């Protein structure tokens, strides 16, 4: 058994069991991947993958348990490197953040600017990701912190903390009948096609719930994951837009107007999350405290210890 075999098994799962993609990601050949996996299965005495001919269909029951162990082993390998780097490089290094477009564009800039002014020896890598990709990037160790709405809760190997609450706003292009109106109802909004977020993303469930409460079924003209894309197509006249409130700026969004709603859409909660069990440099905790002063290093470590105790891992 060796680390290359373990990494290949994990990469195959990440690649949705496409061996060719896994081989490319690990800079090896398809035949090399197959041989490494077969050697590992022979050593363990169990099949890790279900097969149909040469195709991999998924994990066997033993394979699912083996994968959990592989994830823990590779996590600790990464921790060893991080510990060594901490003692050899002090406060220098890299802070890797995964965040959705809305958080990257509108919520994080002031915190990243402040962090940069204090830690000029730390490189910042901002990975802009689809909301459903943020947990995956955290679990794989490709980032230190992840920011998203709706996709970080209830992921067992993540610790999630609240970042801030926000509300949706309705926007219309100049000249729209709703422009300048006060106390506009959702019934009136539903008479126009809507341009808003994709299902399951950026508080979309709050939007859907608000209309469902009124037995309304609005016509979705376009759904996207990017607030700026939504604003662009509202400006082109595709429909009325519903976006995260922080994404609208009256000074910069020329050609668009915010509508005053009579009944507000329920607020949404953006969270940030960390991978459980991962060693973190001190500047990671300092950045978190800039974003959420109440979430100190001690709070995070206590939360992690409590989750470990609940799961029976200590």
From TrEMBL:
Keywords assigned by UniProt, alphabetized: DNA-binding, Transcription, Transcription regulation
Molecular functions per Gene Ontology: DNA-binding transcription factor activity; transcription cis-regulatory region binding
Family listed: Belongs to the LysR transcriptional regulatory family.
UniProt key word Transcription: yes
Protein source organism: Hyphomicrobium sulfonivorans
One Pfam family here: HTH_1
Occurrences of domain HTH lysR-type (ranges): 1-59
UniProt KW Transcription regulation keyword: yes
Protein name: Alkanesulfonate utilization operon LysR-family regulator CbI
PANTHER family: HTH-TYPE TRANSCRIPTIONAL REGULATOR (PTHR30126), HTH-TYPE TRANSCRIPTIONAL REGULATOR CYSB-RELATED (PTHR30126:SF6)
A single BP term in Gene Ontology: cysteine biosynthetic process
Coiled coil regions in record: none
SUPFAM superfamilies referenced in this protein's UniProt entry, alphabetically: Periplasmic binding protein-like II, Winged helix' DNA-binding domain
